[in-house]
Amino acid sequence: MTETNKKILQYQIGGLLYMPAFQKNIVEKIKNNSIEKLTSIAFCLEDSIRDDALPEAEETLKSILQNLKNLPKLPLIFIRVRTPEHFQAVHKKFENFSDIITGYIFPKFDLSNAENYVAAITEINLQREKPLYIMPIFETENITETANLIEVKKILERVKNYVLNIRVGVNDLGNIFGLRHGINCTVYDVGVIRDTLVNIIKIFAKDFVVAGSVWSYFGKEKNSAWANGLKNELTLDRINGFIGKSAIHPSQLPYIFDSLKVTQADLNDAEQILNWDSDSHGVAKGSGRMNELKCHSKWAERIKILSEIYGVKDDENLV
């Protein structure tokens, strides 16, 4: 896969639906297209699986992948492993399914394991034509320190072409401080978590796509506290530079998908910037605001890609 494809693929993850590797019914749900706005799946072999059940979970996942392999249309598929050593073992076990596996998720990624993870993915990709991608998760106390984050970035820059998203585990970060926010708050209301998120964006968003963290509440009712809370947090995700979001329930996916749509005004301005027609001026009037070629080109490229993947909002009130 070329770098151009990777530029698009990193935005196609959208709402990453997490599920334990025991989730056998996902095959029928994908086959019947019964999960609205499903763009990507994470099969978890880590925290959602008890240690003594791991061998059984791996065998179940092997069966799931075999059945998925026969379907004509699939979401992006990722597997969440436990350690660098577990990653190598799982990849070897599932190598026959590498054509449908987009990549692997590396949990608790920090200075204690970053070098080993990077060495493992480098060795594997040297033997492949199609890249196997990775998504590290920042969720340990180690990455709450700026100096450690900077060192982690230096390590990840060596495999930048393989990193689709940087992801953040806010529940694990909250557990460090014994915190959990309520349904009427967002993660940005929790000061120590907000500061860590802003730090991650500040250090990584220039060179990587950083995805929003999980929203812990879900339900069937659309106009309820859980949905309103999710929409509020999605708005703050977008404002702060997070793109996409982890999902723990299918009911969350349509909201995440809609949050990635762009407004018509943004698309109009993005197209003006990308198709700049002045040889002398670097500024021009846009949709009620000033567009600057040098300042807004990166933003415009992202808006254009998101519009092609998720579409344009019909209603300005959509998140």
Top keywords for this entry?
12 helices
What does this structure look like?
This protein is α/β, with parallel strands linked by helices. Helix content is 43%, strand content 12%. β2 (40-44), α3 and β3 (76-80) form a beta-alpha-beta unit. α4 (84-93) runs parallel beside α5 (114-125), α6 (146-156) packs parallel to α8 (191-204) and α11 (264-274) packs across α12. The mean pLDDT is 93.
Summarize the structure.
With 319 residues, this protein is α/β, with parallel strands linked by helices.
Order of strands side by side in the largest beta sheet? 6-5-4-3-2-1-7
Helical residue percent band: 40-55%
Largest sheet, in brief, is: 7 strands, parallel
Shape type: globular
The N- to C-terminal Cα distance equals 32 Å
Strand fraction equals 5-15%
**Measured on Cα atoms, how large is the radius of gyration?**
20 Å
List the helices and strands and how they pair.
Elements (H helix, E strand, L loop, with lengths): L2 H10 L2 E6 L5 H6 L8 E5 L9 H15 L7 E5 L3 H10 L9 E4 L7 H12 L7 E6 L7 H11 L10 E2 L1 H8 L13 H14 L20 H16 L4 E3 L5 H7 L4 H11 L8 E3 L4 E3 H18 L9
Parallel strand pairs: 1-2, 1-7, 2-3, 3-4, 4-5, 5-6
Antiparallel strand pairs: 8-9
Helix pairs in contact: 4-5, 6-8, 11-12
